[in-house]
Design a protein that fits this description.
With about 90 residues, this protein is an alpha+beta fold.
Length: about 90
């Protein structure tokens, strides 16, 4: 399965940089508002559409585009598409 192979490659890359790696799934319209994490967080869209809001920015990354959300920054993640989306996320190990 292509996504599984990609996950292995991305998980290996992120681990080398000190990050965990897991997959999240959201239905259309799902919104995770105003989250704050102690460590840095990486997010990478696998498929579908996503919007990330933090630090006065609104990002709509394409599949495969990595976004770093700095530690302690309030952020919101929204599935803005018409289909279920999947995305990698990981936290910096401290």
């Amino acid at each position: 399965m292509k996504n599984e192979l990609d996950r292995q490659r991305i998980a290996h890359d992120w681990a080398a940089r000190g990050f965990s790696c897991a997959v999240w799934t959201d239905p259309p319209g799902e919104e995770w508002a105003d989250f704050v994490h102690a460590p840095d967080e990486l997010v990478m869209l696998i498929d579908g559409d996503i919007e990330l809001r933090f630090a006065g920015r609104v990002l709509r990354p394409q599949a495969g585009e990595e976004v770093l959300i700095p530690a302690g920054v309030s952020h919101t993640v929204i599935n803005t598409g018409q289909m279920t989306n999947h995305w990698f996320y990981g936290y910096k190990r401290v």
